[in-house]
Design brief:
- The chain crosses the membrane at residues 6-26.
- This is Cbb3-type cytochrome oxidase assembly protein CcoS.
- InterPro entries: Cyt_oxidase_maturation_cbb3.
- Pfam families: FixS.
- The chain has 3 helices and no strands.
- It is an all-alpha fold.
- It folds into 2 domains: 1-30; 33-74, no CATH class.
- The protein is elongated, with a radius of gyration of 26 Å.
Length: 83
C-alpha cells in the first residue's frame, strides 16, 4: 500500500512530461505534414533505377540548367560511378 505513495506522484510527473512533449511538438510544427513523407517515399525517382541513356539525358539537362543559372554543374551518376 505504501508503494502507491510513490507510484501516483511518479505517474503524474510522467503524464506532465508527456503532455509537455506533445504541446512542444505541436508548437514546433512536428505534425505539420503527416502525409508528405509517405508520398515522397512512394514517388521517389531513384537515379539507379533508370536506364543508362535516361541517366545521361537527365545529367545533360541538369548541366544545361546549371549553366543557364551560372552555377557549378552537379556531378552526374552515370555507369562509371562506383556503386
Amino acid at each position: 500500500m505504501s508503494i502507491l505513495y510513490l507510484l501516483i506522484p511518479l505517474t503524474l510527473i510522467l503524464l506532465a512530461i508527456a503532455v509537455w512533449a506533445f504541446f512542444w511538438a505541436v508548437k514546433n510544427d512536428q505534425f505539420e505534414d503527416l502525409e508528405g513523407p509517405a508520398h515522397r517515399i512512394l514517388f521517389d525517382e531513384d537515379e539507379n533505377d533508370l536506364r543508362p541513356e535516361e541517366r545521361r539525358r537527365r545529367a545533360e539537362a541538369r548541366r544545361v540548367t546549371q549553366d543557364d543559372a551560372g552555377g557549378d554543374p552537379a556531378p552526374d551518376n552515370d555507369e562509371t560511378s562506383p556503386r
